């Protein structure tokens, strides 16, 4: 049931995106610090429940890797596309390896 684990991991990554985006927006002054940080903390409080449910579909290692890789890719895209951050070629290569990691996790032994 890798697809269910990917769905849960994607939802957890979405929380990361919203929380980290709000934290960055608070840091830059785009939103009030109190609101940005409070909403981030509330969103992060949901993640353990999602992680717990994801464990019924895959093991701890796979769920955690999926969550981290999906979150890393999408948060990186958020930084590049929305906050106009720059990445070096080496960092882009690292992001490409993350995509390969997701593909390898999806393969059966």
UniProtKB/TrEMBL annotation:
Supply the alphabetized keyword list. Membrane, Transmembrane, Transmembrane helix
Query: In its keyword annotation, does this UniProt entry include Membrane?
Result: yes
InterPro entries this protein is in? Answer: EmrE-like (IPR037185)
- Give TM regions: 33-53, 65-83, 89-106
**UniProt cross-references to Gene3D superfamilies, sorted A to Z:** 1.10.3730.20
Protein known as: EamA domain-containing protein
Q: Which organism is it from?
A: viral metagenome
């Amino acid at each position: 049931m890798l697809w269910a684990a990917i769905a849960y991991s994607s939802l957890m990554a979405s929380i990361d995106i919203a929380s980290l985006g709000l934290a960055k927006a608070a840091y830059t002054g785009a939103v009030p610090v109190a609101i940005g940080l409070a909403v981030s903390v509330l969103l992060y409080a949901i993640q353990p429940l999602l992680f717990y449910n994801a464990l019924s579909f895959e093991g701890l290692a796979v769920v955690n890797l999926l969550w981290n890789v999906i979150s890393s890719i999408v948060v990186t895209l958020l930084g590049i596309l929305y906050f106009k951050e720059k990445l070096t070629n080496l960092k882009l290569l690292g992001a490409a390896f993350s995509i390969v990691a997701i593909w390898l996790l999806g393969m059966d032994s």
